Amino acid sequence: MSFINSILKVFVGDKSQKDVKAIQPLVTKIKSFESALSALSNDELRHKTEEFKNKIKSARAEKDQKISQLKAEAEATSDIDKREDIYNEIDALEKEAYEISEKTLNEILPEAFAVVKETARRFKENTSIEVTATPKDRELSATKSYITLDGDKAIWANSWNAAGKEITWDMIHYDVQLIGGIVLHQGKISEMQTGEGKTLVATLPLYLNALTGNGVHLVTVNDYLARRDSTWKAPLFEFHGLTVDCIDNHSPNTEARRKAYEADITYGTNNEFGFDYLRDNMAHTPEELVQRKHNFAIVDEVDSVLIDDARTPLIISGPVPDGDRHEFNELKPKVENLFNLQRQLANGFLAEAKKLIKEGNTKDGGFQLLRAYRSLPKNKALIKFLSEEGVKQILQKTENEYMQDNNRKMPLVDEALYFVIEEKNNQVELTDNGIKFLSNDTSEDFFVLPDIGTEIANIENQNLEKDKEAEAKERLFQDFSVKSERIHTLTQLLKAYTLFEKDIEYVIMDNKILIVDEQTGRIMDGRRYSDGLHQAIEAKENVKIEAATQTFATITLQNYFRMYNKLAGMTGTAVTEAGEFWEIYKLDVVEIPTNRAIARKDKEDLIYRSVREKFNAVIEDVTQLSQSGRPVLIGTTSVEISELLSRMLKMRNVPHNVLNAKLHKKEAEIVAEAGKPGVVTIATNMAGRGTDIKLTPEVKAAGGLAIIGTERHDSRRVDRQLRGRAGRQGDPGSSQFYVSLEDNLMRLFGSERVAKIMDRMGLKEGEVIQHSMMTKSIERAQKKVEENNFGVRKRLLEYDDVMNAQREVVYKRRRHALHGERLKLDIANMLYDTCELIVEENKARNDFKNFEFELIRYFSITSPISSSDFEKMGEMEIAGKIYKAAIAFYTEKNARSAREAYPIIANVFEQEGNKFERIVVPFSDGIKSLNVVTDLKKAYDTHGEQLVADFEKNITLAILDEAWKKHLRQMDELKQSVQLAVHEQKDPLLIYKQEAFNLFRKMIYTVNKDIISFLFKGDLPQQNQNIQEAREVKRNDNYTESRNEIESSEKANREASQSAQRPQVTETIVREQPKINRNDNVTIKHVMSGKTETMKYKKAESLLTSGEWVIVNE
User: Fold this and answer.
1) Are 823 and 817 in contact (CB under 8 A)?
2) What confidence tier does 910 reach under pLDDT thresholds 50, 70, 90?
3) Which residue in 401, 341, 340, 337 sits closest to 369, CA to CA?
């Protein structure tokens, strides 16, 4: 392929060179402004920002004015259809205004970038800069130590504190950084090597896009980088009157967090941006919202956020009824015994295979070897034996024989096993032997799912009475549900025992299972594997099994970032995933040339037969490099390997630092030490992202930083990240990867060809092979895995897109209800949809009686048409007539409610208007009651109309939120249950899409009916004229915020068809209550219905936990 690519480059040209060439004229233009800007005074330079802002404002002034006029017109219009047309026109004008802003930004880009560069030059060359003090300078000087006031002058120092570290500004943008900044502004990914100053590059597009006043977000992978970068670069922006903040400095749902989003430039972590979006969509008043519209985001370490974490759902969840009910503890002893039996079998098969192969009987030996491999592929003795000469070829030849004709002969291999492990697909499947063993002390069908279709046919053929037939079917469905849950639990336990290893995929700390990020080696605190897998691992390791939770709100990072009008990213390693970035995000990757040529020597891989030989060679090399005065960074892929190498270095008395999941909190100080002479650091392949390893002149003279990779990662991107730790800004250095045939990548995807070559060359134990052809062979194996992983991610995206489409509909309705301006239109649409549904259902059955009943039930009106008209007229015509009658009744009813409430409101306002700002007014539909909070002055000024508007808003939000919560629960269950469709030779994704559509349609119909019914029937209770002050009460949300972990796509096609999700970041908000003894009597009230009950506290606990009941004072 590389040969074909080189030929194509001759004719078509190199993409990265073309990209850079296209940008070069802009760089020349930026530099043309330098001399003119350097001649300006400090005040004149600062005035440039106002000039830019005015230019943008005047360019879009006409559109903004038109939008304001249309908004006022929409408010004054009572005609619903006309109002809808106006809102559509506003949306179109806002798009046009945005495009005008973008066009203007492109026009001012060269001069704006030159202004930022000139500002950076002045900060570098002057210890202080004196300017005429503006009100903004005076405001900032109160909190920023680098600004001091002297009369009407403000003095800006060039030294300040950045996240606890004193820094002096010493940077000016060089040409390749200008190229990087242009690429980011264009909404592309800027791939820049380590040490090329990506955070400085970002200052250029951040400044330019902040000029619109619409907000720019800089997204980082962790809060340390967000806090550091926001304080490090802030003076550059603040000097020009732009505001900068970091959301991670402030608590969620606070005024400070809202102000951080109102800043021109906002820094923060991907998690917090996503969670704030979810919290905003659970808000009950506009004042609780913190985020603005999603304008422009630059994502730092974009490959980590948009590839590794892309499918990570951010989840706000709460307790679920019977969430602590499961069968993990009951089934664990059975699975443990089964696993131990299979291990004994596997060892027996392996011993037999060794004996037969030694005797020259490769046919039978290969058969036993395949059995050993399908029993336990991670068996260390098996892995060791497979690295011996010719053994891997015997296994592959046998496997190919039994896999041909669609695995026709594979049952002969599997019949002696208890379960079969497909390691490449991450699947574990019970065999008949396994089911028989597990059912020893239970019935034979304890783990066998009933065939629903056949069983239903059998029940129907028995000609039972209707009630008995329904009972029989109900028992069947119940049996299916219980057994499917049992089999799911069993499968997850088997996976926990066979595919997930302690200190590799997870560690145990403080009696909890903590997942290790395979990319960075950091602990992903609070994350949990989804789908019961985490609970299975907890059962396996005998730690507390956490209760299941219910989703209240969720979004994947992938879909969150696709909401921005413009998205850009920067990283050192994106080009290997360029296809995925384009296909999913429409982001182009542009490779930016380095400021200085790379002097690092990247050596060809050293390939050994066994892990033992490889590690011995690594230790030998590290010892020599350290003694020569060069710092050494050893990259590992797991905690286990880093600890093993640490023990080996201790035996050689080589001092070293270890950075892995168990020691991740020391990362900053360990990375800071890593560039000193002779220092040896063991770290995971992507540790230390965002921090440079700086070298002393002494180290540079000795040959620079030496990178030792102990294993090739599944992804080339991760290996490139490790290599990139050396050779920053033209520094000398070297990188060397050590590989063995026992490594995961080689064992699963790459060793066949390499093993053949080693056999032909007659290499003995301890001997090594090193050649560019071998390195390319390994990279081909990595490409296979990357393609595989991309396939997994694309399929998971299809699952998530279904959920995302539904979320957008619900959240759009919520926003309209929250702000109120488009709520009238939504209510009219709900009303019309409900009319259509009633007509459609009853017209199909020609049931006029039920039609009349439903009109009374939902709209409290009698039929505007007669029985004969109902038969003669078409569905559209009937729906139109009902709609007109219903909307007329509703308008009159609202006017009446306002009239009835106004005297009471007027009395409160005139008597106690100075005391109360907001009041609570009770509404009831005769069954449920709802307290509506309204602004007293607005309700008085509008003669009660504001109260009616708040009533509409409150009831829409209450019913919509409750229905969405239930729907999410059903979607969670659906995602799990559709996987059983594979047993019926059906595509689970297709079934999921169909069922999800039906569920959502049903939910929307129900929501429409419930909202319309309450709006039509809801009224002020006549007997209760008591209106009280609305006191601000702290919200008692009992929920958890988390990230749900997919079982790592890099683990080779983990359940491609499954709706896997990612681990959990947990922040729990606890319900506050006075201490009550368990046997005390308490009175509790149902929030929605208003029903009250008195019972002992221990009985009430479960109801209170659900969040639907609250304690009331008697």
Assistant:
1) yes
2) confident
3) 401
What are phi and psi for residue 569, nearest 5 degrees?
A: -155, 160
Cα separation, 413 vs 402, in Å, equals 8
pLDDT band at residue 605 using 50, 70 and 90 as cut-offs: confident
The three-state secondary structure class of 133 is coil
- Evaluated on CA atoms 285, 290, 296, 302, the torsion sign reads negative
Other CB atoms within 10 Å distance of the CB of residue 609: 25
Task: Report the alpha-carbon distance of residue 372 to residue 342 in Å, rounded.
Answer: 9
In the sheet that holds 929-935, the strands lie side by side as 929-935, 918-924, 1028-1029
> How much is the average pLDDT of 169-183?
93
pLDDT for 313: 77
How remote is the C-alpha of 245 from its chain's centroid? 23
SS3 306: helix
**H-type alpha helices, 652-729:** 667-673, 697-702, 716-723
Nearest to 1005 by CA among 847, 864, 838: 838
pTM for the full predicted model: 0.74
Distance CA 15, CA 35 (A): 33
Q: What is the 3-state secondary structure (H, E, C) of 536-587?
A: HHHHHCCCCCCCCEEEEEEEEHHHHHCCCCEEEEEECCCHHHHHHHHHHHCC
Q: Kindly list the distances between the CA atom of residue 701 and the CA atoms of 408, 704, 724, 732, in Å, as whole numbers in the listed order.
A: 63, 7, 19, 8
Beta-ladder partners of 305: none
Cα–Cα nearest to 169, from 158, 181, 153: 158
Average pLDDT over residues 179-188: 95
Token representation of residue 942: 């509008």
Q: Under a CB-based contact definition with an 8 Å cutoff, are residues 803 and 317 in contact?
A: no
Shortest CA distance to 283 belongs to which of 249, 316, 261? 316
Q: Report the pLDDT value the prediction gives residue 503, as an integer from 0 to 100.
A: 76
- Measured between its terminal Cα atoms, the distance across the chain in Å is 79
The β-bridge partners of 934 are 919
pLDDT score recorded for residue 1073: 42
Whether residue 221 is predicted with pLDDT greater than 60 in this model: the reply is yes
Neighbours of 518 (CB within 10 A): 23
Please, are residues 274 and 557 in contact by the beta-carbon 8 Å criterion?
A: yes
* SS3 category, 772: helix
Residue holding tokens 């004709």?
405
DSSP alpha helix (H) spans, 322-438: 328-358, 362-375, 380-386, 391-407, 410-414, 432-438
Highest mean pLDDT of the ranges 4-18, 154-168, 1081-1095: 154-168
Is-contact 1064 1043, C-beta < 8 A? yes
pLDDT: which is higher, 740 or 53: 53
Say whether pLDDT at 357 is over 70: yes
pLDDT confidence of 284, banded at 50, 70, 90? confident
> Kind of pairing, strands 566-571 and 296-300?
parallel
Q: What is the pLDDT of residue 667?
A: 64
377 or 36, greater pLDDT: 36
